[in-house]
Write a structure and sequence with these properties.
70% of the residues lie in helices and 3% in strands. With 260 residues, the protein is mostly helical. It has a two-stranded antiparallel sheet.
Length: 260
């Protein structure tokens, strides 16, 4: 259980660092309770996913499918930028695709778990959560995600809400299909294989996130739902795009899963 908690906490701290890469270190002093709220939001998410990884012996693509579901769920209940114009059918689709697939799924979840498991060896012998505690972690995540609406107001389009809800339901059925299929087969415990290219990419990303949080000149303004360092955000978007594209090309050409 200790390794599962350590992995979940490490992934959570990585995500908090990523948050401050676009907010800037000054935001830490302007909103001192935010890191606590972010920890309460990310920790149950990563603990629940850690449970699913161990129980179903997930690979990176299966984890991406589950992360995509949770990313859309956060957008549904939390104050998300996808509700701000320009929108089509009530949703800003470019923001949904970039924030969910580039940031939430790839960098925040897959890379978050990769870095955590690179530092801490996972115990595959026991699952960290029971059925009741899994449900508790899920509702904990949803409740904290929704609570951000009390601090950051965001519009919501009814049509967009139901379209996103349908996407979540479709994703849920696809996820259930793959998990049920996984239960019917005997999967080997995935071996965490070190990879020089992925290690170098992750080292570069971590160094960049620290640089963005600490060194990029503060240019914070209220952007949609929160205060963002505009210079850091625009730079981070470009770095994230190059990082994910490089990782994606490597994943296709090598046909090797990203160790999680």
């Amino acid at each position: 259980m200790r390794s599962h908690l350590t992995i979940s906490i490490t992934a959570t701290l990585f995500n908090i660092l990523a948050e401050y890469a676009i907010r800037g270190i000054q935001n830490l002093f302007d909103m001192p309770l935010l890191p606590f709220m972010l920890f309460l939001n990310y920790f149950p998410y990563f603990l629940l996913l850690e449970h699913l990884i161990v129980r179903y012996k997930l690979n990176d693509l299966e984890l991406a499918l589950i992360a995509n579901l949770f990313g859309m769920l956060w957008m549904l209940v939390g104050p998300s930028v996808i509700w701000f114009p320009p929108t089509v059918l009530g949703i800003n689709w470019p923001r949904l695709l970039f924030v969910n697939l580039f940031w939430w799924v790839t960098i925040q979840t897959i890379i978050g778990f990769h870095i955590a498991n690179r530092l801490v060896k996972r115990n595959w012998e026991i699952t960290p959560l029971s059925k009741k505690s899994s449900l508790f972690a899920f509702f904990w995540f949803v409740a904290v995600s929704f609570s951000f609406r009390f601090f950051a107001q965001a519009p919501m389009n009814i049509l967009g809400f139901f379209i996103l809800l349908q996407l979540i339901i479709i994703n849920l059925f696809i996820m259930k299909f793959f998990l049920d299929k996984t239960k019917e087969t005997t999967k080997r415990i995935p071996k965490f294989k070190k990879n020089l290219l992925v290690d170098l990419l992750c080292a570069f990303l971590i160094l960049y996130l620290f640089f963005a949080a600490l060194c990029i000149k503060d240019n914070s303004t209220l952007t949609y739902v929160t205060y963002i360092n505009q210079t850091a955000m625009h730079t981070t978007i470009r770095v994230s795009f190059l990082f994910v594209c490089t990782l994606f090309i490597y994943r296709i050409l090598s046909k090797k899963p990203i160790p999680i």
